[in-house]
Amino acid sequence: MKLPVMLLRLNLLAIIAFMLILISANVTRDLIQSSLINYESNFSKDSVTHDVTHAETLVSRNAISLSHQTIDHENAGWQTAEGMLDKFLTRLKAFIKKRKFDYIQFEAESEKLENRLSDIDNLIYSATPAEKRTARFRELSFRVKFAWHVLGEMSSTVSELVYYGESNATGHRLVLRIIELNIALYALLDVRGHIDLQVKHLARKVFLAWREVIVWDSQLENTNGVLSELRQVFTKHKELAEKKIRALVVQLPDDFGC
Predict the structure, then answer these.
(1) How many CB atoms lie within 10 A of CB 134?
(2) Paired sense of beta strands 96-97 and 100-101, if any
(3) Distance between CA atoms of residues 108 and 106, nearest Å
(4) Are 189 and 153 in contact (CB under 8 A)?
């Protein structure tokens, strides 16, 4: 009877041990699963968030860098065009010396000057639609139009200056003077076509130009034998000079001395 009892006890002990092993295994499995879940949770919340944030930061920095590069490129283009325009208008003014227009030298360089201004014009108007909405573009556009205007007027007077320079007709010298004065008045303007307050003795030069127009007009009026065609040419340039001088007078400050 003792043997069966012992076998029964051994079986019970084996069952209890097996159950303990199962319980231990389940606990271990739960711990492992819990650890994995925590790891995945931490990875998805912290690591992924960090990586996404880092990526967004890099994209943002690259966008800012590209934006700065675009702005720098735009500014560099505007500065180049502005510098070229300033030099071009300075060159045009160099043909004016002591209220005289060196039309012979100008004619020799006219084709090169026109090509140069075309290059500047193309540089400015190659701007993007967004750039064309900026104040900087409008400023440069206005300047290049003024440069074309001055170049055009200089070019259009060359043939008249050559013709009357070789003429012996009565009063031809007065016609030459009024034509040259019209061109010389551009020396009193800045790159925007406004009166240049940096010009020395500006008020005096404006006054002298006005006086010369009056004197020459009176001289031609009192000269006999002047052809009607010549009088018409003189009157055309006289009226243009008067218009320019009036615009200069209006822009002179009240306290601007001679």
Answers:
(1) 14
(2) antiparallel
(3) 5
(4) no
The answer to whether 246 and 188 are in contact (CB under 8 A) is: no
**Phi, psi at residue 14, to the nearest 5°?**
-65, -40
**Which stretch of DSSP H or E encloses residue 97?**
strand 96-97
- In this structure, the chain runs to a length of 258
Cβ-based burial of 199 (10 A; exposed 0-12, middle 13-18, buried ≥19): middle
Task: Give pTM, 2 decimals.
Answer: 0.69
Structure tokens, 225? 């034998």
- The tokens 């360089």 sit on which residue? 109
Q: Which tens digits make up the pLDDT trace of 113-170?
A: 999 999 999 999 988 888 888 998 999 999 999 999 999 999 999 999 999 999 999 9
Distance CA 219, CA 231 (A): 12
CB-based contacts of 189, cutoff 8 Å, min separation 6 = 195, 196
CA pair distance 187, 96, nearest whole angstrom: 7
Integer Cα distance of 64 and 55 in angstroms: 14
